[in-house]
Amino acid sequence: MTSEAATRLTASSWPTLSEVARDVLLEVLIHSPLSRAEIAARLRLSRPTLTRVTRSLVAQGLLVEGDTRPRASAGRPSEMLHVRGAAHRFLGVKLTAERLFATVTDLTATPVATAEEPLRSTDPEGVVAQIAAVARRFPGITGIGVTLGGIVLDGVVARDEFLRWTDVPLKAAVTGATRVPTAVDNDVQALTAAEHWFGPGAGLRSLAVITVGAGVGTGLVVGGALVAGSHGLPPHFSHTLVDANGPQCGCGRRGCISSYLMTHVLLRRLTGHPGYEEALDRVRAGDPQARQVFDEAGYALGVLIGTVANVIDPQKVLLTGDGLPLYEVSAPLVHDGIEDTYEDDPDLVELDVRPFGFSEWARSGAALAIKETITGAITGRPDGDRRR
Length: 388
Hints:
Layout lengths: L3 H7 L8 H13 L2 E2 H8 L3 H13 L3 E7 L8 E6 L5 E7 L3 E8 L4 E8 L5 H13 L4 E8 L2 E3 L2 E5 L4 E4 L1 H9 L3 E5 H12 L8 E6 L3 E7 L2 E2 L30 H5 L1 H6 L7 H9 L3 H25 L4 E4 L4 H17 L9 E3 L4 H17 L14
Parallel strand pairs: 4-7, 7-11, 12-15, 15-16
Antiparallel strand pairs: 1-3, 2-3, 4-5, 5-6, 8-9, 9-10, 12-13, 13-14
Helix pairs in contact: 2-4, 3-4, 5-6, 7-13, 10-11, 11-12
């Protein structure tokens, strides 16, 4: 746990906001810059209410008046409101089985610092201590967001196969160790929310994020909201059937999407146990076995994209992950899979391929902390901490 001196350096309080103030701040955060008239129309607020709320947010240092925009009709130009990014800073942490990636952002999720280091231990107590040590390097943070490739329910890591954790109360542990309000979530869910707020999906009513690599993940936005099941589970398509005679899947069946796309399974199908880069080199050099394995994986990826598109008809499908080079070498097969699966015109599927690094995944942890701070999910200090 941090010392009293380190605690004073770390925590930065968030002001208490009314529900209307939160809505206004979120609207400007996602769609900035906006005039007061635009905000009032979007949120259906009266002009006096909006004036009072924006005045308060400006006084609290969260909003700032910037440039002006000429009105369509004659009259005084509209003053534009922006979120004051420098008002607060947030720490995002992405955990893999071997490394910790950290990104510090401002209130607009713009990165201001990054860090990366190997995990010294995968024991939960050791990981929490390492997160706390990273947090102490960045004094003045308002919130922390931690993401990982497992199932997270109310801040408890119910299961993470990469770290081999079961029922780890990570949110409470990190909050206790850092004395900074903390949010914890599945990494794909957090990335989906971050790209919907601050990335290529900003402002869209529907969005699908598909990640390929060590695992196969899917995040969905429908009606402008992140989709989570009634039991808190993220969307799951990885065991959708591609070919009943396909390779063995970890679930015990054959031909699931995971059996083609998970990197370690894909590599296991190649002779000589190559690394991923070597396998890609084999494909580019025309090796027939590598070409077949990657093309089958590409087709499976297309089936996944087409299946997801059938379910929600998204405005955009964002494709990313450390296995993304698969798309580079097998794009025609990916599009064959989409065409064979999607029940409408494949041209309606807007595919946005983004090679995000792990710093972007860590940034999504900071975005998670921003979201939960603004919406009130992690406002205030931990129980028992009454300092002002």
